[in-house]
Predict the structure.
Amino acid sequence: MSEPTGRALGDFLRSRRERLTPEAVGLPPRPRRRAPGLRREEVAELAGIGIDWYVRLEQGRAVTPSATTIDALAGALRLDETEHAHLRTLARRPALPAFTRERAPDGAARLVHSLDRPAYLIGRRWDVLTANTAAAELFTGLDRLPPGDRNVLVYLLLTPEARAVFGDGWAEQARHVTAQFRAAYDVWAPDAAFTGLAARLRRGCPEFGRWWARHDIGQGGAGGKVLRGRCFDYATFQANEDPGLRLTVYTPR
């Protein structure tokens, strides 16, 4: 396991340990706790692993846990399916090359611009690689951002136009996107493209800092949103040319 990925794994384990109480996992309450959550030895006991081994994992040392250990930790920490999958990814992810902003494949770009409903293609860092006219009309101000700033998080968290588009649902949507970005961030950090974006969001959006500290992990897919007072269904698809690219299409109800 690479050192950066090990740190991400350790941070994630610690964040989940600190959320739990002994009562939540069936342990008797213990007095005089100086820190929130379970103790490291309690997690190790619940997972059936040695305390020294668990401490090494949480400290981000270069150790490689087995699939059985990861599954045991997921059970001990009461992880949901998305968190469990994220833990597996962090335990197995090799070191990655420096991030470079992707380009929209020609076929995918033609598809986006052929649609009569809002659609856009994003990359691993949530950069908007291409968006059609209907999307620009729905998400006011997105196409006015400088090309290097056309990013879902920059638009959603740092522009007043986005708050107007999402209205009362802005906070819920922004928190959800933050959790999805956190999943990618944990894999790519300390790449400057990701750490720099997170730092910029913390400076520009007070809510982001609070959500980021929770270390929530989100997953995309399909669902519904209220935009400009209208209900839309949306669906997300992976691009065949590069599974890291995602096409999102909105359909008004």
